[in-house]
Write a structure and sequence with these properties.
Structural class: alpha/beta
Distance between the termini: 15 Å
Bound molecules: phosphoenolpyruvate
Largest sheet: 8 strands, parallel, barrel
Number of helices: 12
CATH topology: TIM Barrel
Shape: globular
Helix content: 40-55%
Number of strands: 8
Strand order of the largest sheet: 1-2-3-4-5-6-7-8
CATH architecture: Alpha-Beta Barrel
CATH superfamily: Aldolase class I
Length: about 250
């Protein structure tokens, strides 16, 4: 039985004080409830203040990105070791805003995933198709390529520390959510591919989150699907009441 996992991606929003308040409200409201795994991924500058707010609570901390090197002359970058040191357990790799907005390739993301795992982080690895790719019936091909190259060289043991997030790009921040049929079909396809790329045990074990305009009113429907194991939430994770309602929807 895969536990549900709801993660909030705060993107480039919040201030130091609003980040602290949001993290505190989420953690205090959950009161250590472990029926659903919950993580928040604040902007880098607020990681330490949020780590402090989450100390001793059940809420996990994640970075939104990392570099693939441990250290070096990489101005503006943050290494996975730094994320570990500040208290992160997770890091998001391959978000579409980095794939498509910043041109990050599958090969580049593969290096990041490997480095993050080597540093002891767990990885939320995002995949998903553009609207044009869905309309051209290329969704499965796109997902297959992203999985094959993005997770290339990872071992089944390392996959125990990887969470997949299926995020159709056309649903991110648009208010357009995948239908339950579209979401379940994509998740089942991803799980099948994990079975081929790794093994049946890995496929059965890996959590696959859905991401793309998840809100309190659609969360329960999505997360009750057999292959949807939680949600990666953008906009709605910035409002404590909405995020908590989505977490509650995951409890069922
Ligand atoms: C995201 O940022 O991963 C995301 C899914 O955003 P939103 O929930 O706002 O669509």
């Amino acid at each position: 039985m895969r536990p549900k996992f709801v993660a909030g991606n705060w993107k480039m929003y919040t201030s130091a004080s609003s980040a602290k308040a949001l993290a505190t409200t989420v953690a205090m409201s959950l009161k250590g409830d472990k029926r659903v795994m919950v993580a928040v991924c604040p902007p880098f500058p607020w990681l330490s203040v949020v780590a402090e707010a989450l100390e001793g609570t059940s809420v996990l901390l994640g970075g939104q990105n990392c570099h693939f090197e441990k250290e070096g002359a990489y101005t503006g970058e943050v290494s996975p070791i730094m994320l570990r040191e500040i208290g992160c357990q997770y890091v998001i790799i391959g978000h579409s805003e980095r794939r498509h907005g910043l041109g990050e390739t599958d090969e580049f993301l593969n290096k990041k995933a490997k480095a993050a795992l080597e540093a002891g982080l767990k990885v939320i690895f995002c995949v998903g198709e553009l609207l044009s790719e869905r309309e051209a019936n290329r969704t499965e091909k796109v997902l297959e390529t992203q999985l094959t190259h993005g997770l290339a060289g990872l071992t089944a043991a390392q996959m125990q520390s990887v969470v997949l997030a299926y995020e159709p790009v056309w649903a991110i921040g648009t208010g357009k959510v995948a239908t339950p049929e579209q979401a379940q079909a994509a998740h089942a396809f991803i799980r099948g591919k994990l079975g081929e790329q790794f093994d049946a045990g890995t496929a059965a074990h890996v959590q696959i989150q859905y991401g793309g305009s998840v809100k309190p009113d659609n969360a329960a429907g999505l997360m009750s699907l057999p292959d949807v194991d939680g949600a990666l939430v953008g906009g709605a994770s910035l409002k404590a009441d909405q995020f908590l309602a989505i977490v509650n929807a995951a409890i069922g």
